[in-house]
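Field reference: sequence -> structure
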Amino acid sequence: MPRTAQAYISTVTDPWINLAFEEWLFRRPSHAASPHTVYLWRNNPCVVIGRNQNPFKECNLPWLRANRVPVIRRRSGGGTVVHALGNTNYTCFMPRESFNRDFSANIVARALHQLDIPAHVNARHDIVVDNRKVSGSAFKVVHEKAYAHGTMLISSDLESLGTQLKSPRKGALVGKGVESFPSKVTRLIDHSYTVTHTDFCRAVAEEFGIIYNKEAGLKNHMTELGMADFNSNPKVQEYYDEIKAFEWKWGQTPTFTHAIEKEFRWGYLKSILTISEGVIVEVASEVTPSSKAALPFDGKFLADAISTFLVGTRYDDGAVGTWDALNDVNRWEMGIQNASDVYEWLQSAIWSGIDSVESQA
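Structure field:
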């Protein structure tokens, strides 16, 4: 019987390259691809957010930047996931007409049965063991094609997961981005002392082949994707560049506001920043002078100065261009009373914990 299903496994651990491979596999012309394909891959440490999420609400950006862990926006919806070499990602491609999130998740759950791990799929489409999540899922549907993908926790550092996903400014942000749903999690290694990345990949490929090829053996026919494939494929390189672009990573964030406030010795100041497409587009400030202020001052002038200083500035995780703009003291002072107090506060309140000017992709 001719094989109709295919399996690919990446030998690369660069997350941008692996996501570019995923996009290339998805966009291949139908005549050049199997209608049913599974792609297996794992990444160096990074945090991957959903297409319509707000990274400032989902991630601990100061911690991630300090520890040089990049944030990457994927093309599918769903919640935020921490990637590392202790977990493995899987993507199941299929025709739109046969798309079913539970069906793909059940294939992976049955693959875990091959490893003697009693997994099943719950009502949220998560794969669980002992009612604890080992893998969530997200999906993408475009025209006649679809895919579902997930991240399997094999030997992940669960304590680190919580640290990376705890945003220090979540309560100050208001917007319409999709928020992640927290769940109790476990790891495969907690249920099987011997399970590895290779074991998981082979089991998923095998189960995929049994379902779609009606025979065993696909685990022995996986096609490797490596750096040579990336370097020789202009389309994969194009997708790589798109994923890394500021306009995608930060600019795709749905419009939101960030409220900051502080009581100074000279009065109370509250500013509400509106951020759209990764840029501060509006700042509304309220200044209430204190009766104990040494000298009277023009609160409206200060409010206008804050707006002039911030509007047009990129709102990101403290990359070089943004940090340079914030450190442009000459642009900021403009003869304002109490300028140094407000200037230092703006830096710490908006880009809390960002103290590095080193460039990070």
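Note: The CA atoms of residues 226 and 232 lie 10 Å apart.
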